[in-house]
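$ fold --in a.seq
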Amino acid sequence: MFYLQGVTKFIASYVFMLVVIFTFNLMVIQFVDETLSFWKSAWSMGMVAGFLLGFKINEDLNAKPNVRLLMQLGVLCFVGLSTLQGFVSYLGSSNLLEMQAAKNLRVDFDANWVIPQFGLILLGLWLGVWFNEKFGADRLLSLSSCEALLLPFENQLLDPTVRGSRKQLELLLHADFIEIGASGRMYDRAQVLAELPSEATDYPVRTIENFRLRKLSENLVQVFYSIVENETQRTSIWKLEGEQWSMIYHQGTRRAS
């Protein structure tokens, strides 16, 4: 399904650029009675479409793509591009569409076109992924990497040593932190910082199970889990600011008996 969606997005971008080029050529013909030869081979279109797709791969996968995936996706995109461009070239060279602007979209399917186009698609995919990681890392969250970070944080908040340290709690709890306990009572950050250290010594062992995550926005992740010892369902919302995660909301409720 991922590959089908990826190729569909790639072809959609390519078709959009073909329409733009075709329309632009129609406008040029109106004034100079000729088309722009620069657009004939549409050299940059495959790379641009690949870049746009590569830029979105991280979001679609919620993980960093590997070389094998990019190669497979590049091959499928190239097959789709060649099929589409072959159809467009057929229309342009036949009598079905007697328009000079359409004829200008024809390409010669030789090594001088095929090899560079395949390479440009791969280059576009790689550049899109790289650009996303380089300049969009603060916006894209990998759920797998989030779990690796947030599960230890949740366990820290269940650790009596951490609960007894105001300094460590201040690092883990957001300035706007709110908690709703199983009793229904609401606590703000100041109340939690005041009460938790005094309760830390007698805090019982708590074990997390069924840990799950849900991405709420570009920098917010909600986690769900249950506590083995007292069958309590809990949920927290963690916020990423810069490079720092902090809990902004927490709620605990008992399971229905």
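$ fold --in b.seq
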Amino acid sequence: MKAKFRDVKVVSITGILALLAYGIFNIPHAMSLAPPEAPEEWFPKDHMFTKVRALSEVFMFAPEASYITVTVTFGISGINRKKANFNKFVPNSNRGDAIFDEGFDLSNPMCQKAFVRACNDANAYSCNADGCKPFNTIARTNSSICFMEEFRSWAENDTYTWDSSLFTEKLIEFRNTESPQSGTSENWEDLVGVIDGEIQYASFTFKAPIGNLESLETKRPVLERLYRFIDYVKDYPECTTASNPCDCGSVMQTTSFAWTWLRTEEGLVYGFYQGLLICFPVSFIVLLWSTGNYVVSIFALVSVIFIVVGVLGFIASVMGWDLGVSESVAGIIIIGFSVDYTVHLGHMYIHAEQEGYHDKEERFDYAARTMVSTVIAGAITTAVSGAFMFSCQMTFFLKMATLIVATIIFSYLYSLVFFMGLLYTIGPSGQTGKIPFEKLKFWKTQAAPKKIPDVVHKSESGNSVHGLHTDEVDDVRAQESDALRTLPEEPSHHQIVGVGESEDQNKLQ
């Protein structure tokens, strides 16, 4: 680090430029991290659990099962979660009670027409997103299941002309006795919602051309197109301009897994970057507080950023990982590792001034002598402890081991080469960059009065007193002399005893 060529700090500058270039190279790779397109593999490819899952997907499920099933529902306006004491951290318990749309009445001819029209339009509604190819529609060809069409065929009559009681009676009979012609289920109970003898909601389903496990960027445009379709249904003439319009305000679309997992993926990405946005400013505040120098803190923060970017770029470009659960969690944890070494080195660089070192090169030497060995020891122990997880079977622990070891390596390089190199070449000297904390009111403390020792012990040489300098000894002796002058006089032990005094007095003398 200290090698020079014609007064140019060649080694330090070379190390700084090399790590700076590598950090910039890793920025686009780190930013390219995205949620995985498939479920995370929790076991190695040759593990029996992985093989069982792969075989079950081939032999136990139809190909259509891998596509998203979209359910379009009329008549449910929301969910009342307060009554059920819903806990978002336990989402499968006490989910709440459905809130039915009191304005929706399927016996209304306009509602029947709107429902049938939506069933037909789903098969033809355009979608140019990549997830809709090759059909270029929101639904796979002939994949919709619409009970109203089969019900009207079964009734052999125009159900639009029936009154409400007859329509409800016949539809309940159809629901309980008939099954879909497609053979996808045994009855219509899930699509025709009958509660207490009343039809509360009605649904139809279709298969979207996108798989459940497609990437976030592939699924999101399809979801947005489905929202457009729902808005299109709500604007039907049957729902807006008819003489007795249907209340279509509660129409919605849902899936059992795809959109829930999409929001989870978005939450992982959002939480990861939100964590970075929070951690970096907090780290900078900690660095300012611990070092008391904004120049050193800026150098340390840049080092921390490059450490995090380096680790994320490494797992993206070299390991080929996605932004999964373990990567999202570890991406926040690594900031703690990356700050640790720079804080200690920066603190010792600033502390060197109290030891009489004011020049940046002297401070560098002091920080290197006092802290580098500690940093190396900490790096070795942490890396070795993380390396033990390389023997685990679950890929989660393998990834954690890789991230910990990689973080330690990058922290070691950027703290000792990049950060210390910056301090050695352009680091602050003297009072440069110092934050005057002592001028703040809450920072000031009253100095304690100097305590005068009760007993002063003179050294054998007679020139000093233990623990005190010569000038301080004089002050102490002067104060001791003043104290002795105030004491009452006592008879001298060398006085001559007068004649006639008792023998007892002589003994006391």
